[in-house]
Amino acid sequence: MLYFAYGSNLHHFQMKRRCKDSIFIKKINLKNFKLTFRSKYRAADIEFKKNSIVPGGLYEISKSDEKKLDVYEDFPVLYKKYYFFYYGKKVMTYTMVKKTPFRFPTERYLNIVKQGYKDCDLDNKYLQKALLS
Fold first, then answer.
1. Which of 81, 116, 115 is nearest to 96 (CA)?
2. Cα–Cα distance between 105 and 47 in angstroms, integer?
3. Is 50 helix (H, G, I), strand (E, B) or coil?
């Protein structure tokens, strides 16, 4: 199945450790969403915003990878699944259940996301913009 990562799972080494079958395919943009950080975990989330984009990584993952991600993302309590189509193919990602106010991420978490942006060759300006929310 296809999975869209936009936060700490962009980090290739961490993603491979978490989901051994995962294969990074390429970078893509999720349209009409924006990146933010929220909850007591100060973790990445996406929310609907017209004419905005969230850059991320498209991965191929196995059923067992999905189960591991469900545990990591605290599905269905913290995150729920969101599906969209990319060139006719169904893609799964996670979005937070409770849209709490913006919380600046911890330095450790932010460094993982920044490395993920490098790993996937994403434009850092979207991350910088999200941190100014």
1. 81
2. 16
3. strand
Closest CA to 35 of 14, 10, 12, 59: 10
Per-residue tens of pLDDT for the chain, all 133 residues: 999 999 999 999 999 999 999 999 999 999 999 999 999 999 999 999 999 999 999 999 999 999 999 999 999 999 999 999 999 999 999 999 999 999 999 999 999 999 999 999 999 999 999 999 7
Tokens representing 89 are 């193919």
From the list 57, 66, 64, 44, the residue with the least C-alpha distance to 86 is: 57
Which domains are assigned to the chain? 2-128 (3.10.490.10)
Its pTM stands at: 0.97
Q: Which tokens go with 58?
A: 């498209």
* Rounded Cα distance, 55 and 33, in Å: 10
